[in-house]
Amino acid sequence: MPFSKAFRRTLKGASATLLVSGSLLTPASADAISTEQATALITALTDELVVPAYTQLAEDSSNLSEALKSYCAAPDTDGRLKVETEFHATMDAWQRAQIIQFGPIYEGKGPARFQFWPDKRGTGQRQLRQVLNNQDETVLPSGALAEKSVALGDLQALEYVLFNDLKITASEDSFACRYAVAIARNQEMQTAEIVQMWAGNNGYREQVLSAAEGTDVFFDEKEAASRFLNDMAGAIDVVRLQKLDRPMGLTIAGARPKRTENWRSQRSLRNIRLNIESVEQFLTVKDGFGDLLTSIGKETTATATLELVSEILSDIAAFDQPLSLLVGDPDARSDLESLLTKLRGLQSLVREQLAQDLGLVPGFNATDGD
Amino acid sequence: MKKFSLTIAAGAFLASAQIASAAEPADILATYADIAEAGYTDSLTTAQTLKSAITALIETPSDEMLDAAKAAWIAARVPYQQTEAYRFGNVIVDEWEGKVNAWPLDEGLIDYVNTSAYGEESDENAFYAANIIANEKLTIGGREIDATNLTPELLQSLHEVDDVEANVATGYHAIEFLLWGQDLNGTDAGAGNRPATDYASGEACTGGNCDRRAAYLVAATDLMISDLEEMATAWGDNGPARAALGDGKEGLGIILIGLGSLSYGELAGERMRLGLMLHDPEEEHDCFADNTHDSHYYDALGISNVYRGSYTRIDGTIVSGASLSDLVRGVSADLDAEMITKLEATQAAMRVMKDKADSGEMAYDQMIGEGNEEGNAIVQAAIDGLVAQTRTIERIVAAIEVDEIEIEGSDSLDNPEAVFQ
To answer: B4, B128, B376: best mutation site toward chain A, by most A Cβ within 10 Å?
Structure first.
């Protein structure tokens, strides 16, 4: 599980309470939104958010790949800066796209091809160290990383190679630098594939847009809309449990700074901001969840959700240290805990209120297991 | 939490399903609890048989006795894994489960390990190589531990010590490690190969501290027996787990949460897909015994048992009764047929995996190896089956909405409580 057993116990206690109160809520109404409204929603989210997010990621990872190739040929400070800029751009694009948890991203080895994290057993890191220590050339040929462990060809691996020890990529034609190029190239290729799978002829985009007719993937347009709702809730879940609660520990003594995401490149909070901004976009995009709620007379839900989202974003912006330092800082504890509480509130709004207002049923997530 | 909303949806589901179906929630829940009671009782019985085999091994540490103990462990997994469909959703089970089936473990906490394969330390775990069996007194991270007497209580206190989940001191997998030892074959053929002489006395003892190793094994087994006793009782008449199901409204939600969470996040995700993604031999559930294929197979069978309301006990008798399947059929015969088809497809895919491993041709850890296209495909097919059945479980939850249109204006919609009276 992405969060500690002890914390899970707390949640279980809470869920037991809700088990009882849950049945008192008015059941979701199936005809809350029309077929046309649901189709407009899933079309807007697909064309305005999903496809552009992957297209951006493809562009950025291609730039990163180029920047690394030039840098490795003749490593210098300018080249390094360029590489870092492009790494962050690619990571930004990935963190924005991370919210999408269905469709082509789940082909093959799934989203972990882009980022295998958290690595709770340290398996990925063990494999990565072996490659670097043994200068394992089998990772270098074009296409090789796609066949290997995801932990060797993902953005976490690239972060480790670039940021764990700056020296290893700094000498001309070093193994580490060539490996970094191979990872970037792997990212570039697999992202191009995802874009094609969504937007190409008979692509997944068409499956989503024609959901109302019933497709191989979707029973109907409500099921497709539910997937998007599920993704919003899932993104909040991941931020709350994996990105915040897990490194924070139950008490400050149990804080684990190295469990923060991307601490090596100091972008933990930036990732969280981008993830929540994606949730915000699901609400604010034209014909998105916000417009839909308003059109069925549920603007109070839309407003409440958006207000909570902006509050969370300004809380995140107010932190002035990296998250890896904040988790162990007694002065920051209450602010982090308050952020957790607000995220939990947002979670409930999306999973319960939005679902109920719209007559949608969010499903199981990959984080449901242990 | 997703768990909340599913429960809420299931509550709504019930309100409508009640109208169309002959199966009463109370009857479905009674079958559900009866199967749980039988499953945990079978787990207890097979654990007691394991204890006898372990006692015999310690008295006479021979290869034959070690093999007999291993066979008893494998047999004990059969009923236990089928109970995993009860784990998620039932708070009492979920809080207890870690004591008996926590995984994966940093086995260096318990006994000697091969450091060139395992390493000597971990950023995540200060107890990574604590070796309780070799050390009567330990000081780790400023904490002193007196391990002179290897009692069930001591093992309990070491379980998840330092708030690290990989510190698994008790349960099936700790016992598995003490019987098999580390599997040092990577993704090549072969399971762990601990010599029986690890339990020998005097000069014949290998691995050091044989008497303490035996004491640890006995204590861990005794503890597991008492834990299983507790859970079998919890599902008996007037037991707290049975009582917690309530009068039906909440109970059906619990069943669905259990089936969906095990199918998807836990089995398809954490236990299977991760292994395929990492191609790493450590990523298998019963990694010391190479018994993972069986573990997964019986997990999937347990899901099917619960949905269909029928469990075949270790003595061959059948516990069955009103089922979720009956209720769903009352709402939509097509949906029930879809669920049965999906469950059977998963079973068939799991069967291919199990047969492949049982034949000795390819163990599970080989199947997940890099470049093993055939093996990867076998595991992927089982994952696909689990994911597909999860979608149908979600459809079962959502089916309610369709039904509510039909019964709009009825008591079941306007006054959901009325139909349960």
So the answer is: B4
| Mutation for B interface: A3, A216, A364, most B CBs within 10 A | A364
Nearest to B264 among A15, A347, A364 (CB): A364
What is the per-residue pLDDT for B111? 97
For residue B53, what pLDDT is reported? Answer: 98
pLDDT bucket at B187, cuts 50 / 70 / 90? confident
Nearest CA in chain A to B408: A29
A contacts of B280 (beta carbons < 8 Å): 123, 127, 149
Contacting residues of A for B169, CB less than 8 Å apart: none
Nearest to A348 by CA among A236, A198, A184, A222: A236
Q: What is the pTM of this model?
A: 0.79
CA-CA distances (angstroms) from residue B3 to A8, A16, A121, A265, B9?
12, 10, 26, 34, 10
* In chain B, % of residues over pLDDT 70: 89
At B407, list the tokens.
Answer: 């019964």
The pLDDT assigned to B22 comes to: 62
Distance from CA of B373 to the nearest CA of A (A): 10
> Which residues of chain A are under the pLDDT cut of 50?
1-27, 369-370
Element (H, E) at B318: strand B318-320
Mean pLDDT, all residues of chain B: 87
Distance from the Cα of A139 to chain B's closest Cα (Å) equals 12
Give, as one character, the DSSP assignment of residue A26: P
A2 contacts in B (CB within 8 Å)? none
List chain B residues with CB under 8 Å of A22: 4, 7-8, 11, 250, 253
Query: Per-residue b/e over A303-317, b at no fewer than 16 CB within 10 Å?
Result: ebbbebbeebbebbe
Which CATH number does A51-205 carry? Answer: 1.20.1420.20
Whether the CB-CB separation of B220 and B155 falls below 8 Å is answered with yes
Q: What angle do CA A207, A212, A216 make, to 5 degrees?
A: 40
In chain A, list all ranges with CATH 1.20.1420.20.
51-205
Predicted local distance difference test score (pLDDT) of residue B116: 74
